[in-house]
Amino acid sequence: MPPVKPESRPRRSRARVECTDDTTAITVSVGHPRVRPHVVRVSNTAGLTREDLITSFIVVWQPVPTPPPLWIRFLKEAPFGTQAVRAENLHWDGKFLSIEVLEEPAIEAYAAEMSQWVDYANSELSQCERSPAALAFKEAQSRALEIENRLRR
Fold this sequence. Notes:
Layout: E1 29-30, E2 34-41, E3 53-61, E4 63-64, H1 69-76, E5 91-92, E6 97-101, H2 104-126, H3 132-152
Antiparallel strand pairs: 1-4, 2-3, 3-6, 5-6
Helix pairs in contact: 1-2
């Protein structure tokens, strides 16, 4: 008996149900990350050596303007990345997005994905069905169609 494949259905963002009449569609940008070293003592031995320390890196991005909570939800739900590099692993403190990593290639991997995650969050927020921007766009589309039809006569 052949294996049964699960039904394929379009992935819809869980955050999309939180769109309200008050949802404002803004475009957020995120520049280059700042990278800070973080050194922590592994053991409490008397003679501190290099082997008693572990170094990690804290990678920080500052979104401009400060995004609304729904935008952060969209960003963290971005349906792409790798097993090790996922938007859901990012931390948000109300001002900065950050991640702590142990290796330099992980810094580059997160930096490479960030612009796509930001584009995804901006796109999802602008497509909130009840957002003022989406409603204005739908109205503008119908007006544009009316103008085109009028010009064809």
